[in-house]
Amino acid sequence: MKKMLKTAAFSAALAATATVTAPTAMAADYTLRFAHFFPPVAAPHKEVFVAWADKVKADSNGRIEVELYPSSTLAKPPALYDAAANGIADISATVQGYTANRFPLTQIVELPGIVTDAQQGSCVIQSLYDEGLVADEYKETKPLFMFTHGQGHIHTKEKLIEQPSDLAGMRIRRPTAVVAKILEEVEAQPVGMPAPESYQSMQRGVIDGVSLPWEGQKSFRLNELATKHTEVGLYSLSFVVTMNKRVYNSMPDDLKKVIDDNSGQLWAANAGKVFDQQDAAGRKDAVDAGHEILTIEGGVDNPAWKPVVAAATENYLAELENKGLPARKVYARALELADSCQ
To answer: For the segment 86-100, what is each residue's pLDDT rounded down to a tens digit?
Structure first.
């Protein structure tokens, strides 16, 4: 009995020692709040932003934690860029065009005929930034990486769009001012709104259709409402993931390196790949549901569509040039990159 008591006491002592000496989970040196507007079930949230957060945590040995705030819970879409600039968020992902006239040179990548798919478009926009052609538009923050979605098409509830004149009088959700100019050329009524608002607006009859890539149809469940699809490659949308400068500058060099190593073309390409996969998935959903899909031969180079998009492109570039911005220089380089990024 004494031997059993001694053994029990010895075991208890070991347990107590183990409790004292066992390593405890260390709190992160930095916990970064990352805000964006995609729903938590969407692939960009899970496969781009969560994946980025996990990689940063692993590369920093847990010294950097990232808290994700999807669905505009920390800031509404038009306020997301300023949220990172002002410290409401430490990092945000947003669409540049949600803050009108703030990133006009960057949005040149949205013009028709530049982006063929998301990986190629992401290479173009990241290169424009890396080469300094649009960098001055981001002085308030530290951009981490930029990307585009794939080609944006027209998705309508009741009427299939076969030629530009079919859009006359229709209320079409437009993501940015660049797309609005294209829609105005065909006398459509562009309605500005962030993508997350599109479902309810179409459900209520506020809009007749949307301009979105197939990925957007899937992310925001719009294939439930829009059953007519016109694949024309009317535009692409640009995105930026950017960081509060003060927070970045407060980090020691080794943690800055972790952020820097998870920036630039590597993550632009990763994001582009996810968006391309979602384009394929969104289109498949529409096919499986028996929707009507019209693919315009030649896309924006089709004789019926080319004059419309050419006029909108020229008007946009001329408007920026009149403001003293080197729009034609950036556009020319974007076209060169469009070929080299293939």
So the answer is: 999 999 999 998 888
